[in-house]
Amino acid sequence: MAAAEPAVPALPGGGGGGSGGGAGAPSGTVPVLFCFSVFARPSAVPHGAGYELLIQKFLSLYGDQIDMHRKFVVQLFAEEWGQYVDLPKGFAVSERCKVRLVPLQIQLTTLGNLTPSSTVFFCCDMQERFRPAIKYFGDIISVGQRLLQGARILGIPVIVTEQYPKGLGSTVQEIDLTGVKLVLPKTKFSMVLPEVEAALAEIPGVRSVVLFGVETHVCIQQTALELVGRGIEVHIVADATSSRSMMDRMFALERLARTGIIVTTSEAVLLQLVADKDHPKFKEIQNLIKASAPESGLLSKV
Predict the structure, then answer these.
(1) Is 219 a catalytic residue?
(2) Is 98 a catalytic residue?
(3) Distances, alpha carbon 166 to alpha carbons 175, 186, 244, in Å
(4) Are strands 97-103 and 29-36 parallel, antiparallel or unpaired?
(5) What pTM, to 2 d.p., does this model score?
(6) 125 noted as active-site residue
(7) Exactly one of 124, 135, 186, 239 is catalytic; which is it?
(8) What per-residue confidence (pLDDT) applies to 11?
(9) Exposed, middle or buried: residue 207 (CB in 10 Å: 0-12, 13-18, 19+)?
């Protein structure tokens, strides 16, 4: 959600004036004035609180006003300069201060680097009842299975959901769910269920989700937007997701790409995860992609 801590020289003093503690602040906390847009709300944080705790406090105070799809920078009021400056790298609250959250106007480029240790795969609603309705569903199943094989080879956790399985059936038999972390039923369109959030919290260092399944314009789109809102980078595998309508599918992929979500392909994902022909699992991944993935109707637009 927020931009990375900027690397600027440390400031003399805490900025904002006053000493630690202060009237009305609980023992062991420091008063801080949190400013966002035209708002300013006094609160307190634990002594020694850093960037992440400040961000959490901003969200608790202004979460209903913050556009989660924007990038932000945290700034500190510096009395030396009489204005706000970018929060120093490694900053920790030691005395009363004033901070603000500033939305960046420039478009930041998402690099989209993938590493196995910081990645989770999400397989969304690849169920039997969707087989006759989803465009290129056979191709999507084939590519989805390839991705799950890659996840097993690389030790990447996989979370699978099934939309109302009582009525829509279980995941198709061609998809091998051996070793997946979770298989969850849902009625909500987004995969971001409480159980999924809990599972992500248990996996240290998760930065990226590789997302595929159906339907692109409903469950995939809503899942991607929720994950981005929680600060997770999302990679949607275009050749492993589809809809009943190609129009819905293509417009959803275009919309998601405009929000900074990475729209990619299965082969690009798998090769980015190994990154080097000397990777110990490269040969196994190479065997998965020896035959090119089916085009699943994507080239009909070219």
Answers:
(1) yes
(2) no
(3) 18, 10, 21
(4) parallel
(5) 0.67
(6) yes
(7) 186
(8) 34
(9) middle
CB 101 within 8 A of CB 74: yes
Residues in CB range of 162: below 8 A, 6 or more apart: 125, 127, 168, 170, 171, 183, 184, 185, 186
Which pLDDT value is given to residue 18? 37
Sheet strand arrangement including 262-264: 182-186, 158-163, 119-124, 208-214, 233-242, 262-264
Please give the structure tokens belonging to residue 282.
């490269």
Angle at which helix 246-258 crosses helix 221-229, to 10 degrees, equals 10
CA–CA separation, 136 and 302 (whole Å): 17
Cis peptide before 215 (omega within 30 of 0): yes
CA distance 79 to 98: 10
For residue 157, the model assigns a pLDDT of: 97
Q: How far apart are the first and last CA of the chain?
A: 33
**Ranges of the chain whose pLDDT falls below 70:** 1-27, 68-70, 105-110, 300-302
pLDDT of residue 271: 97
**Which of the following is catalytic: 71, 125, 135, 139?**
125
Residue 204 pLDDT: 85
Quote the Cα angle for 245-251-255, to 5°: 145
